[in-house]
Amino acid sequence: MPPLTHFDAQGRAHMVDVGGKEFTHRIAVAKGRIEMQAATLALIESGTAKKGDVLGVARIAAIQGAKKTSELIPLCHPLALTRVAIEFAIEPASDGVLGAVSCRATAETVGPTGVEMEALTAVQVALLTIYDMCKAVDRGMTINGVRLVEKQGGKSGSWKAG
């Protein structure tokens, strides 16, 4: 197993030096979901939630979250993102299974380090925004399954979740 890159030889946390790394086109895709009662999902779908367009606001929040990742995660490099795309899918409730909204975030840059943290942050912020906008009617919502599903570019090349 390779060593953790965010620790120096003495075991102290440090920001990885990416100054000598090649600039490449880098893409990361993350996904996750928030489960909720069918009535809550219906409010989101119909656009009648008291706070407004839940998915529209969550999309903007996700993009902002991706852009601010280096302010939230202490050892992340600030990146010049070239694209952040957010997709939502409604998963209706059925046979005792809760309904859900799934989120997929794609982050891209051309630079010396990857955009995995930006994609993951975008998903988390989108799902947290949905929770915030709907908590008055459903405090039991559950965020789960947030994970990286694909990355491209850089020295390590492409990777896809199995």
Can you give a write-up of this model?
The protein has 162 residues and is of the alpha+beta class. It contains four helices and five strands. A five-stranded antiparallel β-sheet has the order 2-3-1-4-5. Strand 4 and strand 5 (159-160) form a beta hairpin. The chain is elongated. The relative contact order is 0.27.
Give a short summary of the structure.
The chain has 162 residues and is an alpha+beta fold.
Strand order of the largest sheet: 2-3-1-4-5
**SSE string, helix = H, strand = E?**
EHHHEEHEE
Mean pLDDT: 92
| Helicity, as a percent range | 25-40%
Report the sheet-strand fraction. Answer: 25-35%
What attributes characterize this protein structure?
single chain, 162 residues, alpha+beta, 4 helices, 28% helix, elongated
